[in-house]
Amino acid sequence: PAGRRGARMASIAEIGAPGVTSVFCRMNRTDLTALTDLAETGRLTVRVGATYPLERAADAQRALAAGGTRGKVVVEIR
After folding, report:
1. pLDDT number for residue 50
2. 3-state DSSP of the chain
3. Distance between CA atoms of 28 and 43, rounded to whole angstroms?
4. What is the mean pLDDT of the chain?
5. Other C-beta atoms within 10 Å of 34: how many?
6. Residue 21 DSSP label
7. What 3-state DSSP class applies to 76?
8. Strand partners, 75
9. Distance from the CA of 22 to the CA of which of 13, 31, 46, 54 falls in 20 to 30 A?
10. Chain-centre distance of CA 62, in angstroms?
11. What pLDDT is attached to residue 54?
12. pLDDT at position 2, please?
């Protein structure tokens, strides 16, 4: 599950781009719970541009490579 010891998150946002703020931390269950609370109460906004099931991960990669995506591209693992 997300937030477990050793879990990883990747972002392709350009570091230092205008309007991009990067925060790097070691994620743990407490931090993930706090971030979830912020998102659910509207105090943290995550822009999701597209969502793909795991079976379409290649399509997600192609969309990223083509450029022009706005927001995060999410690959759902269920």
Report:
1. 94
2. CCCCCCCCCCCCCCCCCCCCCCCCCCCCHHHHHHHHHHHHCCCCCCCEEEEEEHHHHHHHHHHHHHCCCCCEEEEECC
3. 20
4. 78
5. 12
6. -
7. strand
8. 52
9. 54
10. 17
11. 94
12. 47
Q: 70 CB contacts (<8 Å, ≥6 apart)?
A: 47, 49
**Tokens describing residue 35:** 């971030």
pLDDT in tens, 22-52: 666 666 888 888 888 888 898 888 888 999 9
How far apart are alpha carbons 39 and 56 in whole angstroms? Answer: 26
Quote the tokens at residue 3: 């937030």
Which residues are CB-contacts of 4 (< 8 A; sequence separation ≥ 6)?
Answer: 29
E strand spans, 1-78: 48-53, 72-76
How far, in Å, CA of 20 to CA of 13, rounded?
7
Cβ–Cβ < 8 Å for 48, 29: no
pTM confidence score: 0.52
Distance CA 77, CA 9 (A): 13
Q: How far is 52 from 10, CA to CA, in rounded Å?
A: 16
